[in-house]
Every structure is written in structure tokens, then in C-alpha cells.
Amino acid sequence: MNAQAAAAAKPSGAQRAMRFVLPVIVFAAGLAAWELVVRIKDIPPYVLPAPSVIFLTLVKDWAVLSQSLATTLLTTLEGFVAASIGGIALALLFNQSKWVEYSLFPYAVVLQVTPVIAIAPLLLIYLEQQTAVVVCAFIVAFFPVLSNTTLGLNSVDRNLAGLFQLYGASPPQTLRFLKLPAALPYILGGLRIAGGLSLIGAVVAEIAAGTAGAGSGLAYRIAESGYRLNIPRMFAALLLLSLAGIVIYGVLALVSHLVLRRWHESALGKEN
Fold this sequence. Notes:
Number of domains: 2
Distance between the termini: 17 Å
Structural class: mainly alpha
Number of helices: 12
Order of helices and strands: HHHHHHHHHHHH
CATH topology of the largest domain: MetI-like fold
Largest sheet: none
CATH architecture of the largest domain: Orthogonal Bundle
Number of strands: 0
Helix content: over 70%
CATH class of the largest domain: Mainly Alpha
């Protein structure tokens, strides 16, 4: 009876396929409606380009846009790596000393609540352009990693912690064999959030650098296209940014699933 209930609750192959097919159908219908409205209303490309014009612009300007995409992705990667290492390391330090947490955590909150668009112009004054852009990406992505890791390290089962203490485990052993495995789902969740936020921080800083007359990333191309009323290129660059964000999130979600699928409930539920 239980086997039959489990089989009934398990989604069929058709249901799993529809999860991917339905969004594609909606997306295609939206593009078709967009193309139809632009052609019927005869809207000029500098007001609203048709999807076909955007695609042709993407192909025509691929040399420039791909180089800008590589610059933005490199900046995003640098900011993400710095935020990941810094956030996890600081969370581990917080877990070892509450005095350190009480002293430094408020400043991490200040970094989180301060709009990065207000910080970017100041960083561009005092730092080199590329360094300032990476720092902006770091600031935006740092807090989710720090807060999620801190939450995970503080969410250890007290009974297991007491058992480790009863058997005389040292603090490094408790951290390695109890706290870090328990905090791993939280850490991976923070990294998924930080991946997209680092891209947002890089884009904001690139826009600020573009207004100052310097820049080479995709956000700079968007601002440049807006000034020149090259709206098809603006949409093409925006499309690349959106695809980059989706790929970043998908890769991090896949890594999280591969790490957790053998033992954690959140990943086991996806396979049942």
C-alpha cells in the first residue's frame, strides 16, 4: 500500500517534461506577440526593436559584445570568489569568538544596507577602475555568504554538540565533523544567492564607471547604446546579461544538488 502511494506521489516523466516545456512555450508566445505588435504598429527600432532585429544585432555586434561579456563575467567571478572566501572565513571566526561577532557583524550589516550605487563613485575615485568594480561586486555578494554561513554554524543540533563534548572532541574536530557538514546546505544556499548578486554589483559599478567615461563591460555597452540611441544593441547586451545570470544560478544550483543529493533532505526530495 505504501509502495503504491509512493508511486502515485512520484511525478511522471510527462510532468517533469512539462516543467521545462511550458516555460519555453510561454517565452516563445511572448516573443511572437512582441514581434507581431512591432510589425503591425510599425514601431521604429530606436523606440522598440523587434526580437528578430535584436537577434541580428547580437550576431552583427558579437565581437564587441562577447568581449564585454567576458570582462563582466571575469569581474563577477573575482567578486564572487572574494565574497565566498571572505564571508565563510569571517563566519568561522564569528563562530569561534562571540566577541569578534559582536564587534564586526554590525559593520557587515552596514555594508549590506548601503546602496552600492552610492559607494561606486567614491570607489572609482580612490581605487583603480577594475579594482573598484570588483570591490562593488564583493560588497553586494559578501553579506549573504556571511549571514547564511553564520546561521548554519549556529544551527547545529545541541544533542549532537553535547555528544561531541562528552566524547572529548576538540574545537577543530567539532568544527570539521559536526558544524561544517551541518552548515553546508546553508553555505551553498548563500553561494547561490551571492552568484547573482555579484553580477548585479559588477553591472552597477560598470554603469558608474561608464558615466565617468571609462569602462568595457556589458553594462557600459548598455549605457553607451542608450546615449547613442542604439536600442537594438542595448537589448542585445541586456539579453546576454540575463543569460549570464541564469547560467550562473544554474551552475551553482547544480553544484549544490550534486553535493547534497546523497544525504540532505532538500536534494533527496527532488529525486523522489
